[in-house]
């Protein structure tokens, strides 16, 4: 036989336990998830960004201009639709910037749609235009090809290139024969308008002539260029390259 008062005590104990369980459950729900609490904050994405010395229309027939940028010297320029925060651009200067990517987007996102803030100006070089840099020197070929390592130029054979911005033409020595062609240069694009390229008709050794044929074939396929660290790079659509240095 249960003592008197047993049932009220049992009922009170049950209610007390239920109340405590409710408080614990509420506190547990309010705590952050352990994994979320311990997960590190994603680091800011920093990039080296090259800025062209001249802007371009943001859209066809637009009066508004946008910066032209790229990540690597051998890439095509793209238009940046938003300003780089903290960066004061001066036309006529080619910049290499360290920038922070403000909105980290999936890999492969078009650079034109990414927003940046300036971290550091790594390099600032005064140039009138890219074409002015192209005409600054007589250039001497030192390597060429489509794969690494590139082909070197034959010993005691000099292959050269010069650009005349007034007449809009390039000319030089292909190793044995002289060559010449009219070209169109816009920003970093270079298009040969003389097809086939004009040449003299001298004969040299088969080794020299074979190199000359390779050179002229690559040269006629060039569609863009870059000038980096005093070297001139001429690129074809399939990413073959001709690398020149200033003639001493």
Keywords:
20% helix, 4 helices, alpha+beta, 248 residues, elongated, six-stranded antiparallel beta sheet, ten-stranded antiparallel beta sheet
Give helix and strand order, one letter per element, not per position.
Answer: HHEEEEEEHEEEEEEEHEEE
Give me the number of helical elements: 4
Distance from N terminus to C terminus (CA atoms, Å) equals 116 Å
**Helix-strand category:** alpha+beta
Largest sheet: 10 strands, antiparallel
Mean pLDDT: 80
- Rg from C-alpha positions? 33 Å
* Poorly predicted regions: 20-42
Secondary structure: helix percent: 10-25%
Q: Approximately how much beta-strand content do the residues carry?
A: 35-45%
DSSP strand tally: 16
Oligomer: single chain
Can you tell me the overall shape? elongated
Q: Would you mind describing this structure in some detail?
A:
- The protein is an alpha+beta fold and 248 residues long.
- The chain is 20% helix and 37% strand.
- The chain is built from four helices and 16 strands.
- The strands form two sheets. Strands 7, 8, 9, 10, 11, 12, 13, 14, 15 and 16 form a ten-stranded antiparallel beta sheet that branches. Strands 1, 2, 3, 4, 5 and 6 form a six-stranded antiparallel beta sheet that branches.
- Strand 7 (139-145) and strand 8 (151-152) form a beta hairpin.
- The protein is elongated.
- The chain starts with 5 loop residues before the first helix and ends with a strand.
- Residues 20-42 have low confidence and may be disordered.
């Amino acid at each position: 036989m249960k003592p008197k008062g047993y049932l009220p005590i049992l009922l009170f104990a049950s209610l007390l336990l239920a109340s405590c369980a409710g408080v614990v459950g509420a506190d547990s729900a309010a705590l952050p998830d352990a994994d979320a609490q311990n997960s590190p904050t994603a680091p800011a994405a920093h990039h080296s960004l090259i800025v062209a010395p001249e802007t371009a229309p943001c859209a066809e027939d637009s009066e508004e201009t946008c910066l032209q940028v790229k990540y690597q010297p051998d890439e095509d320029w793209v238009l940046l639709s938003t300003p780089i925060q903290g960066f004061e651009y001066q036309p006529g200067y080619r910049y290499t910037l360290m920038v922070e990517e403000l909105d980290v987007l999936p890999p492969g996102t078009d650079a034109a749609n990414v927003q940046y803030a300036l971290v550091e100006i790594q390099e600032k070089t005064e140039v009138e235009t890219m074409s002015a840099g192209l005409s600054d020197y007589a250039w001497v070929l030192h390597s060429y090809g489509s794969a690494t390592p590139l082909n070197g130029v034959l010993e005691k054979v000099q292959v050269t290139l010069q650009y005349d911005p007034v007449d809009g033409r390039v000319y030089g020595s292909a190793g044995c024969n002289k060559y010449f062609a009219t070209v169109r240069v816009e920003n970093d694009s270079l298009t040969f308008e003389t097809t086939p390229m004009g040449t003299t008709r001298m004969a040299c050794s088969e080794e020299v002539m074979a190199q000359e044929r390779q050179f002229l074939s690559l040269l006629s396929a060039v569609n863009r260029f870059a000038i980096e660290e005093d070297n001139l790079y001429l690129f074809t659509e399939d990413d073959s390259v001709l690398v020149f240095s200033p003639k001493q």
